[in-house]
Amino acid sequence: MLNYAICEISGKQYRVVPGKVFEISLQKEGEDIEANVLLLSEDGKLEIGTPYLKKKLAFKRIEDTKGPKIRVSKFHAKANYRRTIGYRSKITKIVLPVK
After folding, report:
1. Cα gap 41→55, rounded to integer Å
2. Are 14 and 25 spatial neighbours (Cβ–Cβ below 8 Å)?
3. Which of 11, 22, 5 is nearest to 60 (CA)?
4. Three-state secondary structure along the chain?
5. Measured distance CA(63)–CA(54) in Å, rounded
């Protein structure tokens, strides 16, 4: 039984627990995700990769959404210059199925 794992997805490392939903920032949409495993804890035994293990974990994609809006403002004093832009990052919710 898998207790937890440390995986690398899109250049970032996540601590993964089976059955727990978590959010990642991913640009491509559609298919399920397969991740490289850095550390694996099964029944109290640790496996540490150099840098990765040969196993890969398959995640099920639940939802593609957008994150909260971030507003950025520019202002120059005494020049009547004001600009405001916004940005919303793409967020994907995924889960590691329980076996």
Report:
1. 13
2. no
3. 22
4. CEEEEEEEECCEEEEECCCCEEEECCCCCCCCEEEEEEEEEECCEEEECCCCCCCEEEEEEEEEEECCCEEEEEEECCCCEEEEEEECCEEEEEECCCC
5. 28
Do 95 and 23 contact (CB within 8 A), yes or no? no
Cα 87 to Cα 6, 48, 66, 71, 92, distances in angstroms: 29, 38, 10, 7, 16
Q: What is the pLDDT of residues 67-85, one digit of tens each?
A: 999 999 999 999 999 999 9
Q: For residue 20, how many other CB atoms are within 10 A of its CB? A: 11
Residue with tokens 């939802």: 63
Mean pLDDT of 42-63: 92
Q: Where are the domains of the chain?
A: 2-95
Q: How far apart are CA 71 and CA 65, in angstroms?
A: 18
